[in-house]
Amino acid sequence: MLKYFLRRMAILIPTLLGVTVVVFIIINMAPGGPIEQKLQQMRFGGGAGGDSQVGSSGRSNTHGVSDEVMEALKKQYGFDKPLHMRYVLWLKNIATLNFGESFTYEEPVIDIIVSKFPVSLQFGVISLILSYLVSIPLGILKAIKHGSYFDLSSSIILFIFYSIPSFMLAILLIVFLSGGSFLEIFPVGGIHSEVYDELGPWDQFLDRVHHFTLPLICFTIGSFTSLTILMKNSLIEEIKKDYIRTARAKGLSERVVYMKHALRNALIPIVTGLGGFLTVFFAGSLLLETIFQLDGIGLLSYKSILSRDYNVIMGLVFIQSALFLIGNVLSDFAYVLVDPRIDFT
Q: Which domain holds residue 286?
């Protein structure tokens, strides 16, 4: 068992390197890099731009700036070296968790990511916990009452919610519950009010709940249906097996049959989803963060791609890929905890 996980961890490193190589090449091949964007700013700003901007040699290139200016910009952004050399330097910096400096914000990348981290962390963790706390009991209840009125009506409600895009649900909630045209129960956006620091601990908690309610519904609603149906179908499959018939033949109650014998094995497919629980620390949604005015990882990723902020993009890709791969390894541990019969050797 230990050898298996050591092999998995050994494979994790080249996999992570492969992901970063592909992303690094793609973003560097994309047009409109940081140098081009800087030149555009210089032209509109009237500095170092235009055909009149030449160096001491009196020559200007196709960008309308002198060769000296172009060389200075390349050196500033690290583009004076070949692509493979830039990647090697980036790897050396990653060894010390140095993701470089953002071209857009002109701050260390790690500081920018940490500043956006709390929003995504709160919504990611809370939505994950709520999804499992609601979906697993609901799935068990639907399996026990399979074919009943409760099962059919709850399935209809779940699939209606599942069919509504999260951003459309966000707009509807704002219109109906945030003073759009009807009720004004919840605030439109943000994670707390302007007077948050002046409130006591309990009032601060209520203030956050007040601001979190609508975004959290939109973050969570999509996962309810898939998890609930997966839990239901998995449990139904288990109760059809021979060992469940044997348990019933022994005179065990339905509660014991379901909760003690069938449930443990039925949870195995659910454990698969736990492999990605680490990625919820960087959960983000561009549309939801835009609609609810949340400054999180989703909005940061979008802005970084638009501005070709390579260091921020690579920092986010590296961290999220590492968390995803580590989560997959941890999911194997969860398999063994749920079902000790599983042996990866």
A: 116-338
pLDDT in tens, the chain (345 residues): 677 777 877 888 888 889 999 988 888 887 777 777 777 766 666 544 444 444 444 454 545 567 777 777 777 777 778 888 888 888 888 888 888 888 888 888 888 988 888 888 888 888 888 888 899 999 999 988 888 999 999 999 988 888 888 888 888 888 888 876 778 888 877 788 888 888 888 988 888 888 888 888 888 887 788 889 989 999 998 888 888 888 888 888 888 888 888 887 888 778 766 666 666 666 667 778 888 888 888 888 888 888 888 888 898 889 888 888 888 777 777 777 766 666 666
Distance between CA 19 and CA 2 in Å, rounded?
A: 26
Same domain, 274 and 322: yes
Query: How many angstroms separate the CA atoms of 291 and 260, rounded?
Result: 44
In terms of Cβ atoms closer than 10 Å to its own Cβ (0-12, 13-18, 19+), residue 167 is middle
Counting Cα atoms < 13 Å in the Cβ hemisphere of 15 gives 14
Residue 125 shares a structural domain with residue 77: no
The CA radius of gyration of the chain, in Å to the nearest whole number, is 26
Within a domain: 283: yes
Do 140 and 274 lie in one domain? The reply is: yes
Q: Are 84 and 257 in contact (CB under 8 A)?
A: no
Residue 231 covered by a domain: yes
Domain co-membership, 269 together with 175: yes
Indicate if 197 and 324 belong to the same structural domain.
yes
Give domain status of residue 69, yes or no.
yes
Dump pLDDT digits (tens) for 22-60: 988 888 887 777 777 777 766 666 544 444 444 444 454
Q: Is residue 187 assigned to a domain? A: yes
CATH code, domain with 280: 1.10.3720.10
Closest listed residue to residue 21, CA positions, set 94, 114, 105: 94
- Is 258 found in the same domain as 228? yes
